[in-house]
Known about the structure:
The structure holds two protein chains of two kinds.
Chain A: H1 6-9, H2 31-47, H3 50-81, H4 84-120, H5 130-162, H6 169-201
Helix pairs in contact in A: 2-4, 3-4, 3-6, 4-5, 5-6
Chain B: H1 11-31, H2 40-61, H3 68-95, H4 100-126
Amino acid sequence: MSATTAADHAPHHEPPPFDRTTIQIVPRAGLPFAAAAVVGLIVAIATNSFWAIDFFHVVGGGAWTTLDLFLGFVLGPIIGRMSIPARVEFSARFMPKLVLLIPTLVTMTLGSGFQLAHNLGYLDSAYPRHGWVVASFIVVGIMAVIAIGYLEPANIAVLYELKKPQPDGELIAKLMKRFLYTAGITGAMQIATLVIMTRLAT
Amino acid sequence: MRPAEIKRPPIWECGVAALVTVVISVIYLAAYIPHTPNTILPIVLLALGTALIVAQLVLIGSLDNFARRDFHTVSGYALAAYIVIGGMIEYVFVKNHTRGIELGLLTWGLALFVIDVPLILSFSVARYQAAS
């Protein structure tokens, strides 16, 4: 005689099938949060509040670095091993968030970082560790070229394709591979950023 | 033939090369703050970047069988977003009393950045779409 549990008798409420053609490439619900972050950053810089500028740099930089590392080394390999339908559904739900989140975090981090470096005298070429500051410019510059040239176009092109009733699976696979490789490269470069920032702070 | 299989001129390559020239010139200028470095290198790089963006626009204008509506949709939204980002960076430069030739060159670089990124994004999307 087999044992039954309450869960076996519970009614199954299957969620409705996911309609990926209705996804928003830029999620409108997130726009007020992104706008609030940008306005907050402008106020922080305009008032030259040391705490607020430091807050935006630490929060923005911490979230950006963690997201890149997590995407490149944890989530990326998992997505790469998912079945095609699972990968499509996950990407259609997840990638629109990145379209809004990453540029907002990058703007927060770089805007406040430049102001913070200026206030602390790190931008002055006479500063003894100025070489580390220039190294951070170079790392960010390389990451910007990779992110803007490869990662972001692949992200948006995949979302555009996913919205179609009959998407091109071969194209999505090719672009997703590019997206995951470049996410891994920017994740690795974030380790260099961590080394530079901790060198400057100690 | 699928849109992805159509051979396109090096528009994306021009966009990324222009981005590299802008990034190098801005890093070079920022590395010398508050002093004025020799401006020949950034002027040459920014002129090259400008030429590459003009080449992109000419090549995009000459394309046949290209999804122009999708190109304009993506470039419009991307331009709006990058005007905000570029404006934010310009504000930080001005706030920090960057003046004279440095401000002029940094603004030139930012303007190229704001135009170039939407072109890269919108071409990268439209090249895979069927022409309407």
